[in-house]
Amino acid sequence: MEKTAYAPEYRVLTGNEAVTLGALAAGMNFFAGYPITPATEIAELASELLPKYGGKYMQMEDELASMAAVIGASFAGSKAMTATSGPGCSLMQENLSYGMLAEVPCVLIDVMRQGPCQGVATMPAQGDIMQSRWGTHGDHPIIVTAPSSVEELYRETARAFNMAEKYRTPVMVLSDAAMAHMSEKIRIPAAEELCITNRKKPDVPKDRNYKPYEADETDIPPMASFGDGYRWFVSGIIHDETGFPATADYEKIAEKLTRIERKIDWNIKEIESYEEYRTDDAEIIIVAIGIVSRVAKGAIDKARKEGVKAGLFRPITLWPFPDEALQKQAAKAKKIITAEMNDGQLSRIVKELDGTDGKIEKVTRNDGALMTADMIYDRIMEVK
Amino acid sequence: MKQEEKVDFRLNREYCKACGICTALCPKKAISADDEGKPSMINEEACIMCRLCELRCPDFAIRIGRMQ
Amino acid sequence: MEQHVFDRLMRDDKLPHMWCRGCGNGIVLQSIIRAIDRTGIDQDKAVIVSGVGCSSRANNYTDFCGLHTTHGRPIAFATGVKMANPELQVIVVTGDGDSTSIGGNHFIQAARRNIDLTVVVFNNSNYGMTGGQYSPTTPVGAFTRTSVYGNIEPAFDVCRLAEGSGATYVARSTTYHVQSLIKYIASGITHKGFSVIDAMCDCPTLFGRINGLGDGAKMIAAWPEKTVSIEKAGTLSADELEEKVIIGEFVNSSRRSEYTEKYARIIEEAQRERADLK
Question: What would the CATH number be for the domain defined by C5-277?
Answer without folding.
Answer: 3.40.50.970
